[in-house]
Amino acid sequence: MKNYILILIGLITFSCSDFLEEEVFTQYAPDAFLASESGINATLTAAYRKSRPNYREEWYTFGEWTSDLMLERGGGYAAPAATFAEFNWNQSNNFFRNIWRDRYSAIGVANSILDNIDNVTSLSASKVAALKAEATFLRAYNYVMLYDFFGRLPLITSGELNLTPSRASDADTRAFIESELLSAAQNLPVEPEVYGKATKSAALTLLGRFYLDTKQWQKAADANKQVIDLGYHSLFPNVEGVFSVENEGNREMIFVFGSLATAPIQALAWNYTPHAYPVGYQTGQVNYGAQFQLWRWFVNSFDPNDQRANEYDPPNGKYGWILKQYINKGGNLINLMTNPITAGVEKKYPRPVKFTPDPNGLGPRHGNDMPILRYAEVLVNRAEALNEISGPNQESIDLLNQVRSRSNAPDYNLADFPTKESLRDQILVERGWEFHAEGHRRRSLIRHGSFISGAQARGKANAKAHHVLFPIPEQDLDSNSALEQNPGSVSYTHLTLPTKRIV
After folding, report:
1. Model's pTM, two decimal places?
2. What φ, ψ does residue 422 adopt, rounded to 5°?
3. Where are the alpha helices (DSSP H) in 13-169?
């Protein structure tokens, strides 16, 4: 038998090598579990569940602390965050192991569906195609995430046991991801069957992002145009409500992983909300010692009329994206734009509060759906791709102005951008205003060629060219002699360790 399905505390997890190790409670052969529609659907649910990002590690530690807009101060998370802010990581960091393990685990679940679904005779051909498309999308999504962090990858496409998969070439990795997303887009619906499910727009938007990050400009422009032409998605009419729990499911959201305040915190309920509010914040909001913050220069860079920088002040009916001041529990006004730090309690920087607290939140549990893909990105991505193809053009300006007009920011004018470089630089600035605190920043800086140079300019002496990729985790190098470390990462000699078959 080529593979096994694992039932682990009600969640289905699939494993194909040492780096996918899970504790087995019960084993079922595929023909005993995946021979029915219910088994396939349960496994697909598990694939979605295991594809959820670890927001703290993937979005913030990797995507934001390594960049120029956000910082973290305080609590037990200060040291791990500083490791990445100072470009001081190495291959033994557990965050890399976590991401590598979790993403390949999700890929394994998707593979189990694709390996077995053709044997389910009760399903119609159209239903098989639709389920295959979902599983293919989720597999591709996880490979896109891994490629962003680690570069070329072992391409595991079935449950066939292989304890020593080697890394494919960069060209082959890219070609595989492209083919997966193109295939998924063919059979995914325009409108989601259930909120949170993959759609044609999700596959095309992720493909457009992938093309952009790999500088395939024409393909990026075309993929994003296909999303626009579907006519299904649109910008939410105001910035204050786009991320609220009350407006979940709005047409701006292309792909999200849903959250429930009543779910276990490590399953469906954690987001960054408890980390965004100062310890002394007077509402019932639960606060952690770790404090996610924005640099003041960034907050001051917004146009005065840009509602994205509006004050977050619920007592006075204001729900902007940035907390600049508040009345603390002692009744004192704390101005985060001017006040110095006091006694280690009141942290001195403004806070990103896009994801406003769930009114039904339970302690640190919140039901905010964190967006993986949204329509604003489609517009900005096409604008950037068109500029890279032909320089400043009216369509790029119009696309950017759609996003800006939603926040009451003044329009750009084509005449203001005489060169491709000038518009490219402004698009990067616009991305900061629109997508801060969504885990985009590292990718954007790498693509624009300023990730390392910018870090060095901020005084990060450890930042070197090879830091555009993270190192392959130490544990996986130990268990798989076929894996090669990324160039520039700490040299490493494989240990000869016994291996065991994981079922």
Report:
1. 0.90
2. -65, -40
3. 30-33, 37-51, 78-85, 94-116, 125-150
pLDDT digit string, tens, across residues 222-267 = 999 999 999 999 999 999 889 988 898 999 999 998 877 776 655 4
Q: Which helix (H) or strand (E) holds 450?
A: none
Q: Determine the Cα–Cα distance for residues 481 and 161; give it in Å rounded to an integer.
A: 16
DSSP code for 11 = E
Euclidean distance between CA atoms 445 and 62, whole angstroms: 12
CA angle, residues 290, 147, 145, in degrees to nearest 5: 45
State the DSSP H helix or E strand holding residue 77, giving kind and residue range, or none if neither: none
Phi, psi torsion values for 172, nearest 5 degrees: -70, -35
Number of helices (H), then strands (E), belonging to the chain: the values are 16, 13
Take residue 86 and report the two structure tokens written for it.
Answer: 């100072």
- DSSP letter at 268 equals I
Evaluate whether 360 touches 367 at the Cβ level (below 8 Å): yes
Residue in 57, 249, 149 with CA at minimum distance from that of residue 468: 149
Q: Say how far apart CA 408 and CA 435 lie, in whole Å.
A: 16
3-state secondary structure of 481: coil
| Nearest one of 431, 301, 291 to 347, comparing CA atoms | 291
Instruction: Identify which of 462, 474, 501, 464 has the alpha carbon closest to the alpha carbon of residue 82.
Output: 462
Q: Do residues 100 and 473 lie in contact, with contact meaning Cβ atoms separated by under 8 Å?
A: yes
- Read off the pLDDT of residues 259-270 as tens digits, 9 standing for 90 and up: 777 766 554 555
